[in-house]
Design brief:
Elements: H1 4-7, E1 13-14, E2 18-21, H2 28-35, H3 52-67, E3 71-78, E4 81-95, E5 100-107, H4 116-132, E6 136-142, H5 146-154, E7 158-169, E8 173-183, H6 184-189
Parallel strand pairs: 5-6
Antiparallel strand pairs: 1-2, 2-3, 3-4, 4-5, 6-8, 7-8
Length: 190
């Protein structure tokens, strides 16, 4: 795992349709729209934030986590419209001993069902496997989160099973989670 690729300089990832880039203060209105929407976090371990100042402070937290080399959050933007935040995708829990990382993502409600999450995940998979040289990427999903399961299956993840009462998620208590994964050997063969 080559974490220097990630944490020496913020990586900007591009496809023909999307750009994954740093979230900045200029994106506050869109970020607030995402974090203040209860529906967005119905199946996430994140408590919605209904105070704009709190959401503004979160941008600093994103930077702090990046500086600590513990997590990276990218804003998801349409190519050519990098001022308009569509959603967020992240890589966290970098486990160097196992050579594994966990990913997560969520979109503004206005952008659900358009294939944006799948396209963002595909960009991130390519970067993580080819540039960071990670062996395993995983995602944890609450059982009722069918849209997220569809994204993972569509992008080639395999459902490994259910972790019963395995995690304490903010606002949700102790939850069951389904675990999905992809190995580098599976991805590189595609």
């Amino acid at each position: 795992m080559n974490l220097d690729v990630v944490f020496e300089r913020f990586p900007v990832l591009r496809s023909d349709e999307l750009v994954l880039n740093r979230i900045e203060e200029s994106h506050l209105d869109e970020l607030f729209d995402i974090y203040s929407n209860d529906k967005v976090f119905e199946y996430c371990g994140i408590i919605p934030k209904h105070n704009k100042a709190t959401v503004s402070n979160m941008i600093g937290h994103f930077e702090r986590d990046y500086a600590k080399r513990s997590r990276i959050k990218w804003g998801i933007f349409a190519s050519g419209e990098e001022g308009r935040l569509l959603g967020i995708i992240e890589a966290c829990d970098f486990n160097q001993k196992v050579n594994m990382v966990t990913i997560g993502y969520f979109l503004a409600e206005a952008h659900w069902g358009q294939g944006i999450a799948s396209k963002a995940v595909e960009i991130l998979l390519d970067y993580i496997f080819r540039e960071i040289q990670v062996n395993r990427i995983q995602a944890e999903v609450m059982l009722m989160n069918e849209p997220s399961k569809k994204v993972l299956l569509k992008t080639g993840f395999i459902k490994e099973g259910m972790l019963r009462q395995a995690a304490l998620w903010s606002g949700k208590g102790i939850v069951d989670l389904e675990i999905y994964s992809m190995l580098r050997e599976d991805y590189i063969q595609v």
